[in-house]
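Q: Could you predict the 3D structure of Germin-like protein?
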Amino acid sequence: MPNIILPILFISSFLLSSSDASDFCVADLQAPQGPAAYSCKKSELVTVNDFVFSGLREEGNTSNLIKAAVTSAFSAQFPGVNGLGISVARLDLAVSGVVPMHTHPGGSEIIVVVRGTITAGFLSSANKVYYKALRSGDVMVFPQGLLHFQINAGKTTASAYLSFGSPSPGVQVLDFALFANDLPSNIVQATTFLDGVQVKKLKGVLGGTG
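A: Sure. Here are the predicted structure tokens for Germin-like protein:
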């Protein structure tokens, strides 16, 4: 019997001593980020604060061109979600605020409206449109990689919480991709079917050149 107990105790002790390393991979924000995720912080340096994020308490600053603010709790801001396949954010929309057409290449998104009315929708790869006015308590999902948008459809400030199927879902805003760059205007004109005057105007508004 003693010959059996000793190996069992040894294995149990090993598993207990090494469990932290396999339980999570808190992002080491001081190390370079790889294509998939951040490197793991040494377990002895991990604290409870790595698993807590308080940045979504306050309303975001909507005094900007689109009258919208997104406060992200991705792995770069919330190291504890690194490697877990999840993250969250807060969306605030002033009256007439809008989040333009955009995509998240790295993950699907769910919106949970908590205040006001938000018209939200997405386009399928067949260019079919799915959109609806959402009120407090309503939830909508946007499949990964598809163009989608949110608009304040009411007369008061609107807010929502967003969850993502990735700790770093990425984002590409269509308007900025087209007009906030240094791609020559004649190429943008040819690929968007807009006239040159309109292209230059949009580049001027969004900070593009060329």
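Q: Anything worth pointing out?
A: Strands lie at 68-73, 87-93, 98-103, 109-115, 117-123, 129-135, 139-142, 148-152, 158-164, 172-173.
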